[in-house]
Amino acid sequence: QGQLVESGGGLVQPGGSLRLSCAASGFTSSAYTMSWFRQHPGKERELVATITSTLMPNYADSVKGRFTISRDNAKNTVYLQMNSLKPEDTAVYYCNVRFHWGLLWGQGTQVTVSS
Question: Could you give the 3-state DSSP secondary structure of residue 29?
Fold first, then answer.
């Protein structure tokens, strides 16, 4: 039960911006901590940002000051605003929620930062 669908990825030049969206369905996402992860080719999936049910954010050091996680509870959607993008930000970005019974992942959206 429940589904997460990411959107908003694409190809941008270094220094550009993208806003990723994670639309939740089948459950009320506002009750849970939501997270964004990313995975570089050949590497482990890494945590990018989290936002709690009380809207408290946390960020990986690699994106702190450049990325902003937010949520619109009325739309059951979580966002990741990415500014000042760097080639090292290139990855597949995944939305995630951790229930007490397990994890739920979206399908991922590709972000490519290249000149």
Answer: helix
